[in-house]
Specification:
By secondary structure, the chain is α/β, with parallel strands linked by helices. The chain is 50% helix and 14% strand. The chain has a single domain, classed as NAD(P)-binding Rossmann-like Domain (Rossmann fold). Strands 3-2-1-4-5-6-7 form a seven-stranded parallel beta sheet, with helices on both faces. Strand 4, helix 4 and strand 5 form a beta-alpha-beta unit.
Length: 250
């Protein structure tokens, strides 16, 4: 049994890879930072493969898939992604395009390629890491929120297609709120709410994945917030979201 995890050099990707490895899965760790991947691999047992690549590139995604497609991969976790804080007209467009390519394009390509293989075998798991941000408007982090909405809606649509096909293949979206990872540093924010422990979120995500839950939301507070947002007028929700985002500013 093998699992491929992108964004495996830190945060949720790393923690989910460790959990799967502890469960007996051979893992393929994918990220850009080769030194971090090597360090993580040394702490694992069984067969561990590391691939240093940037999945924001279509070419790299295809190359990654072609490299591993003949291996008996049962699980694919698309965890690579990052955020960016700031008003839309002030954030750097190059950074935003990199974010769109990583958070959307990379997830889209790898999901499509592995889904075709999984459907042919009629088994397999794909877990796409979205965010609680996918359910809300995101002033001051507009591009990030939009990318995660794409991941959530794409995943839900595929989930329904698989259900109607009566397929044994699973796809789901992990939608956590604040998690104590390196995300904050990269995005340039500080969460005003208490962050969940990454290892606990990772364990919860893996458990729910194997239960084939479509949308996975760790934490009662996050669940309550997402549920309550359905009953708030859109303009008021924008104001609330803006004030929450502003408190994150360093």
């Amino acid at each position: 049994m093998k699992a491929l995890i992108t964004g495996a050099s830190s945060g949720l990707g790393k923690d989910m890879a460790i959990i799967l490895n502890d469960m007996g899965y051979d893992v393929i760790l994918v990220a850009r930072n080769i030194k971090k991947l090597e360090k993580i691999a040394k702490s694992m047992s069984g067969n561990v493969e590391i691939i240093d690549t940037d999945i924001s590139s279509t070419y790299n995604c295809m190359k990654l898939y072609n490299k591993v497609k003949k291996e008996d991969i049962e699980i694919v976790i698309n965890s690579a992604g990052f955020g960016l804080f700031g008003e839309f007209d002030e954030t750097k467009i190059d950074k935003e395009m990199d974010m769109i390519d990583t958070n959307i394009k990379g997830v889209h390509i790898l999901t499509k390629l592995f889904l075709k293989d999984f459907k042919e075998k009629n088994r397999g798991y794909i877990l796409n890491v979205a965010s609680a941000a996918a359910f809300l408007p995101g002033p001051l982090m507009s591009t990030y929120y939009a990318t995660k909405a794409y991941v959530l809606h794409l995943t839900e649509a595929i989930y329904e297609e698989l259900r109607r096909d009566k397929s044994n293949v699973y796809i789901g979206a992990l939608c956590p709120g604040p998690v104590d990872t390196n995300f904050n540093k990269v995005a340039g924010v500080e969460f005003s709410l208490k962050s969940l422990e990454s290892t606990k979120v990772a364990k919860y995500a893996i458990d729910k994945m194997f239960q084939k839950k479509c949308i996975i939301i760790p934490g009662f507070t996050t669940k309550l917030g997402i549920f309550s947002s359905r009953f708030v007028p859109r303009k008021l929700l924008l104001k609330i979201s803006y004030n929450i985002q502003r408190k994150k500013s360093k």
